[in-house]
Design a protein that fits this description.
mainly alpha, about 260 residues, single chain, about 80% helix, 10 helices
């Protein structure tokens, strides 16, 4: 077990893994991107159909391909970390059906939350008092900036607390809600380090887009490796804490 970690150590480890397995990581990322592009392109024509059954199958297919592509990268990252030097096989990057169903459940839940919030906004828009409030906000640039900053901070905090749920789904075969709970618990006592890591990740993604989009081919896989390495370090640290607490409890118990 490892006793904590530093952000620099995480970045160095992630870069070392990316550098050693660059062809495999980028190759998988390109294959996943092409697969998602093809499925999304075909789905635009199929969803235009008036047949509800075809629309449902198309949506289901998109969700499955997206889940396999996303979770497959995490499985690849864990394989490169845990089985360094071993050959990457097809089975080592294909998630189980339990993994896929858990990921799809959370994807649908997120979609339901967004749709519900959008519906609430539409309903509120029919109220004159709400429209007046919206117009008042729009007329005050300072208030708009404050609300935007608050929304950004809330989104950042939510992302930070739950960003490791795919890792738990893949690494621990956790169910959808269990993975959310585990991610929240894992990030509870390491907020500053995780915030730093997340800011670094966002910075690399921005740099990738600024490099005419080409840089994202390198920065996207690297940032995901950073997240997986961070997860692994935190899990190992949490295990040490758990073992220490259990040992302390055993020592504190009176002997008969």
């Amino acid at each position: 077990m490892e006793k904590g970690f530093s952000v620099i150590e995480v970045l160095e480890t992630a870069w070392d893994i990316t550098k050693k397995n660059f062809i495999v990581i980028v190759g998988y990322s390109l294959m996943a991107f092409i697969s998602l592009f093809v499925v999304q392109f075909v789905s635009t024509f199929l969803i235009a159909s008036s047949n509800l059954f075809i629309n449902f199958l198309t949506l289901f297919l998109v969700l499955i391909v997206n889940s396999i592509a996303t979770l497959g990268f995490y499985k690849l990252a864990f394989h490169l970390i845990d089985y360094e030097g071993e050959e990457v096989t097809f089975s080592s990057v294909i998630p189980s059906w339990q993994n896929i169903s858990s990921f799809i459940s959370l994807t649908l839940l997120l979609g339901f939350i967004v749709a519900t919030l959008n519906l609430i906004y539409v309903k509120l828009n029919t109220l004159a008092s709400f429209n007046e409030f919206v117009e008042t906000v729009k007329d005050s640039p300072a208030l708009v900036e404050v609300l935007a900053a608050v929304a950004l901070i809330l989104a950042f905090l939510l992302t930070m607390r739950f960003m490791f749920f795919p890792c738990f789904i893949v690494d621990d075969n956790s169910t959808s809600f269990e993975s959310l709970r585990q991610s929240r618990q894992l990030t509870e006592n390491n907020l500053m380090k995780i915030i730093t890591v997340l800011l670094v990740v966002v910075g690399f993604i921005v740099l990738g887009f600024l490099a005419l989009g080409v840089g994202i081919i390198v920065t996207y896989p690297f940032t995901n490796i950073v997240l997986v390495v961070t997860y692994r370090k935190l899990v190992n640290t949490y295990g040490v804490i758990q073992e220490t607490n259990e040992r302390s409890k055993e020592e504190d118990e009176p002997t008969v």
